TrEMBL record:
SUPFAM superfamilies: Oncogene products
Record protein name field: TCL1 family AKT coactivator B
GO biological processes: intracellular signal transduction
Source superkingdom: Eukaryota
PANTHER family in the record: PROTEIN P13 MTCP-1, T-CELL LEUKEMIA_LYMPHOMA PROTEIN 1B
Family from the record: Belongs to the TCL1 family.
Short name of any one Pfam family annotated for the protein: TCL1_MTCP1
Signal peptide, first to last residue: none
């Protein structure tokens, strides 16, 4: 009954592809369902109050690995309605790179009861203008 991070399961999926809004499939054919999406101010937005600063929101996504009922596949144009990436690919350093080249940090990859979970946090964009 401890709060905090769940038990570590090792390497998270190498790739996650969107098959329906909020539903992803990994390289092993397992489905991952988006159960929580949270927006919070990024470190950059909180730390700067200058008139030229951008106030970006950081996105935190909780995915649970669970079976879903098969449904007809959606076209890529239908999938782009979601604010989440169409694909994430695992990179070194516990990060995923999305199709739009944005980086997402693996906050947690563990298990709650019998459900595998993956928590990703979008990192602020690098660089300057």
């Amino acid at each position: 009954m401890a709060s905090g991070a769940s038990p570590w399961l090792g390497v998270p999926p190498h790739r996650l592809w969107a098959v329906r809004p909020g539903i992803y499939e990994d390289e092993k054919g397992r489905t991952w369902v988006t159960v929580v999406v949270r927006l919070s101010p990024s470190q950059r937005a909180r730390g700067r109050g200058s008139p030229g600063s951008t106030h970006e929101a950081s996105i935190i996504v909780h995915l649970w690995q669970m079976p879903v009922h098969p449904q007809e596949p959606m076209s890529p144009s239908q999938l782009t309605l979601s604010q989440l990436p169409l694909m994430w690919q695992l990179y070194p350093g516990r990060r995923y790179r999305a199709m739009d080249s944005r980086l997402w940090e693996v906050v947690d990859h563990g298990q709650i009861a019998s459900t595998e979970q993956l928590i990703l946090a979008q990192l602020p964009p690098r660089g300057s203008d």
